[in-house]
Specification:
The complex is a heterodimer. Chain A is mainly alpha-helical. Chain A is built from eleven helices and two strands. The chains are: A mainly alpha, B alpha/beta. The structure holds adenosine-5'-diphosphate and magnesium ion.
Chain lengths: 302, 286
């Protein structure tokens, strides 16, 4: 057990170096940043307005929806949000914050698609690279077992992912703050922590493990392209499931229709859905590990 | 101490890369000779626990290689230099060795640094230790390969065709290094170059097409060829019916070193066989 932990930490340390020195993470990070920054910068408030479900244009005429308990009015491009549920009254600065957060949500939403697609392709050759470098014989002549090896590879990719996400989150936040002003910090962090990082972790694990059978990098990358539609499907599930988490942060975001699923769902149900999605993700990840392990063992049992 | 019993390995259906091998390998240098495709690499991979046999079993210092847990333990005792050696091109030599030492279970950082220092000195790569491995020449990569195999003071060192691609000087140094290492441990050296094993091996085995053709000391192999090695002097005509090992031009004519039973009219002179003659004699008889 101690050997395994030592081996894992060694793999993470040096695999990280190897991955960074091939610049793949820089490419992933830069692409993600370019897309998200562009969205934040070129986003116009009118576009944002279009993305809001308008309940009515005048406050007093509104028949507010009892399930959602939220009212939004727009008067001459002036957005006003009223939360009727509870005793909170939305102030002007709340409004500004809400207004600024919409482009951030969109940037993250589209950036996430970009990130997942890039990771699928860019991480697919992490294991076949060892074959290209003819390192497998040397690696497996040490007391390293196939499972530790696989877990080590996935862990390395995760550690690098966390690093990229941390840097990306800070830069993006700064840009939004400079170009748009204050926005919803809690929501921003929750989306990174609960939506982007976990889903990217799952995609990284799949991208490392599933093409691990490939005997050269080209086959691995080809296989990862076949995986892309699956990843896009996964993305859709994430957007329509995990993004509900923003409603738990502030119900006002129910009306940003990019993520609108069932705005009338009670909190417990939303929480339940999210928990279920995490569980399913974990299962898919473990299944991928099992498949990859099987291939590793078979290769050694030739 | 390595014991091999009834070992067979079949890669694809009906083709045995190794067939019913029985061997015991003790301390000292053990030479594994044979032409290309004889099954040397296969045997070595089996001993190193990289592949599993079709039949038979191997024990390395009492660890049975067919049991996963014991195999892991045995791998901890083995240093292995693969025939088709690879390195991570983007790591420096020091980083690469540190990585391998960690995988071999050298947990303590100080011990690791000390060992790396030692093996880098043993292969004389001190100056290049902080260069990326992609800048290394073929010979330097081999030396890093052997350095890697020496980490964690293995009881068994297995090197597969280690001198391929080395220049003559490096080759000599490498042989001497292996000879030194074999003082107190098992060194298994696979090669198709007879000079690699001639001086230093206590014991050698010859493989051909997956079968063990010979197992014993170099002296025995030489003795078996005694009376079969001759020199023949002709005026340039190549002698027929024998195997010519070497040719020497002189003013008196062309002198051939041959193995076999040359006809009397060639006037063959019997000479003392060398290891190479023994090997060729062995490979000839079916
Ligand atoms: N991975 C493999 N798959 C199928 N056949 C193999 C494999 N490796 C080796 N062989 C075959 O096994 C035989 C022995 O090969 P090998 O052990 O590499 O010989 P040597 O190292 O003595 O040159 C050869 O006929 C070779 O073609
Ligand atoms: Mg070979």
């Amino acid at each position: 057990m101690t050997t395994m932990i030592a081996q894992l930490s060694g793999i993470v340390r040096y695999e990280s170096k190897i991955q960074q020195r091939t610049f793949r993470w820089m490419l992933v990070g830069v692409s993600f940043m370019v897309i998200s920054l562009l969205i934040v910068i070129i986003y116009s408030p009118q576009q944002a307005a279009l993305r809001i479900n308008i309940v009515d244009t005048t406050f007093f005429d509104v028949e507010f929806d009892e399930n959602s308990g939220t009212l939004i009015t727009i008067e001459r491009a002036q957005l006003k949000v009223f939360e009727v549920l509870g005793d909170r009254v939305i102030t002007e600065s709340d409004l500004q914050r809400f207004w600024n957060t919409i482009p951030v949500l969109d940037a993250l939403r589209i950036g996430l698609l970009m990130l997942l697609a890039l990771l699928t392709v860019m991480m697919s050759d992490v294991i076949p690279l060892d074959r290209k470098d003819k390192m497998r014989e040397t690696l497996f002549s040490t007391p390293l077992n196939a499972l530790t090896y696989l877990i080590g590879k996935v862990l390395t990719v995760w550690v690098n992912l966390w690093r990229i996400c941390a840097i990306g989150a800070v830069i993006l936040a700064l840009v939004v703050w400079i170009f748009r002003g204050p926005f919803d910090w809690t929501l921003y962090l929750v989306i990174w922590g609960m939506v982007i990082v976990p889903s990217a972790m799952l995609v990284c694990a799949l991208s490392v493990l599933l093409p691990s059978f490939a005997h050269n990098r080209r086959v691995a990358i080809g296989f990862s392209v076949i995986l892309l539609p699956l990843v896009i499907l996964l993305y859709a599930v994430i957007i329509f499931g995990l993004m509900d988490v923003i409603v738990l942060i502030d119900p006002a975001y129910r009306f940003t229709n990019g993520f609108l699923t069932f705005p009338e769902l009670p909190e417990a149900v939303i929480l339940g859905n999210i928990a279920r999605l995490y569980g399913q993700g974990l299962l898919i990840g473990l299944l991928a590990l099992l498949i990859a392990w099987f291939f590793q063992i078979r290769e050694q049992r030739r | 101490m390595i014991e091999i019993q009834h070992l067979s390995k079949k890669y694809r259906r009906d083709v045995f890369a190794l067939c019913e091998i029985d061997l015991t390998i003790g301390t000292g240098m053990f030479g594994l000779l044979g032409p290309n495709g004889a099954g040397k690499t296969t045997l070595i991979r089996l001993i190193a626990g990289l592949i599993t046999p079709t039949h038979g079993q191997i024990t390395v210092w009492g660890h049975r290689m067919h049991l996963a847990r014991e195999r892991q333990a045995a791998k901890g005792l083995i240093g292995y230099l693969p025939q088709d050696l690879g390195v991570y091109p983007n790591l420096t030599a020091f980083e690469f060795l540190d990585y391998m030492a960690i995988l071999k279970g050298v947990v303590d950082r100080k011990t690791r640094a000390q060992q790396i220092q030692q093996v880098i000195e043993a292969v004389r790569l001190q100056e290049a230790a902080d260069q990326r491995l992609k800048t290394y020449s073929g010979g330097m990569k081999r030396r890093i390969g052997i350095a890697q195999a020496l980490l964690n003071d293995p009881k068994v060192i297995i090197v597969d065709e280690p001198t391929a691609g080395l220049d003559p000087e490096e080759r000599v140094r490498f042989r001497n290094m292996l000879a030194d290492l074999s003082q107190d441990r098992t060194v298994i050296l696979s090669t198709h170059i007879i000079e690699d094993v001639s001086q230093s091996c206590q014991e050698l085995a010859i493989l051909e097409r997956g079968k063990l053709k010979f197992h014993g000391s170099p002296r025995t192999l030489i003795r078996e060829a005694r009376g079969k090695v001759w020199t023949i002097l002709t005026d340039g005509q190549r002698p027929q019916g024998v195997t010519v090992v070497s040719t020497l031009q002189s003013e008196r004519g062309t002198s051939y070193r041959v193995i076999g039973d040359p006809p009397a009219y060639y006037d063959p002179q019997s000479v003392e066989p060398l290891l190479e003659d023994g090997y060729i004699w062995k490979m000839q008889i079916q």
